[in-house]
Specification:
Blueprint: H1 5-38, H2 41-48, H3 52-58, H4 62-71, H5 78-86, H6 93-110, H7 112-120, H8 128-152, H9 162-182, H10 189-207
Length: about 210
């Protein structure tokens, strides 16, 4: 019986994906215990149940594994999670903030292990993973700010304060996500989202131009 090349290729692709997911899952688990520096490719291989050589077939080095964690759709793929969002239409700047809050919060919850990994190394100035995480967040904020500025052109706002509003908003959002993650049994998702929407309301009210009398 002749083997179907397409079927074989599909099976091989699924095996590769499964192996990659096992490596990434093992990395998250180990980094939660040992941090970035204490997690070696040998430990990752043992935890993932693969040979260390196998890891290097998928990733050039540990840095590449970290990069994949930040970009992979199953983990912290902000670009994929936000792609449709940034191409959507919004009724107002408030509508934009409110909907972004939901999308970003979903991403934090989906990737809470990575978030906690970053927090574990946050005081380590030499942590490559923290630097990569911060850069990924900055890239997201840059995209957020560009769209925010475009939307703000349609509204009567004190535009010189928009960057400050964005910084306060993102700081509040990250803090809220952090408190939710470490107090998941005490806080509900709805409470955190309501808090963030209230923050947005206050910030936007502060930059609204007062109508002339």
């Amino acid at each position: 019986m002749k083997k179907n090349p397409k079927k074989i290729k599909k099976v091989e692709k699924l095996k590769r994906k499964d192996t990659m997911i096992r490596i990434l899952d093992a990395t998250i688990s180990l980094m939660g215990k040992y941090g970035y520096k204490g997690t070696t490719t040998r430990k990752i291989a043992e935890a993932a149940g693969v040979n260390e050589v196998t890891i290097f077939r998928y990733f050039k080095n540990k840095h590449a594994i970290m990069q994949s964690l930040l970009e992979n759709a199953q983990y912290l793929s902000m670009s994929q999670l936000m792609a449709d969002f940034f191409n959507s239409k919004f009724l107002s700047l408030k509508d934009y903030f409110d909907k972004f809050t939901i999308k970003a919060f979903e991403s934090f919850i989906m990737n809470k292990d990575i978030f906690l990994m970053c927090l574990k190394d946050i005081n380590n100035d030499e942590s490559e993973f923290v630097r990569m995480s911060i850069q990924a967040m900055r890239n997201l904020i840059d995209i957020f700010n560009k769209r925010m500025m475009d939307l703000a052109k349609k509204e009567k706002l004190k535009k010189r304060y928009l960057t400050d509003v964005s910084n306060i908003y993102h700081s509040a959002m990250i803090s809220a996500a952090y408190w939710y993650i470490i107090n998941e049994k005490k806080l509900s998702k709805q409470e955190v989202l309501r808090y963030m929407k209230n923050i947005t309301q206050i910030l936007l009210y502060g930059i609204m131009e007062k109508p002339s009398k």
